Amino acid sequence: MKVLADNIKNAMSESSFIRRMFEAGLEMKHKFGADNVYDFSLGNPDAPPPPAVKNSLYQVAENSGKQFAFGYMPNAGYPESRAAVAGSLSREQQFEVPPSHVVLTVGAAGAINVFFRATLEPGDEVICPAPYFVEYKFYASNYGGVLKPVPAKDFTFELDVTAIEKALTPRTKAILINSPNNPTGQIYNRAELEALASVMRRHMEKTGNVLYLISDEPYRALNFDGVEVPPLFGLYPYTVIVGSYSKTLSLAGARIGYLAVCPNMPDAMELINGTVMTNRILGFVNAPAIAQKLLTGLINEQIDLNIYRERRDEMAKVLTDAGIEFTMPKGALYFFPKSPVPDETVFIDALMKEHILGVPGKGFGYPGYFRLAFCVPMSSIKNSAAGFKRAVRAVKSQL
Question: What is the 3-state secondary structure (H, E, C) of 105-126?
Answer without folding.
Answer: ECHHHHHHHHHHHHHCCCCCEE
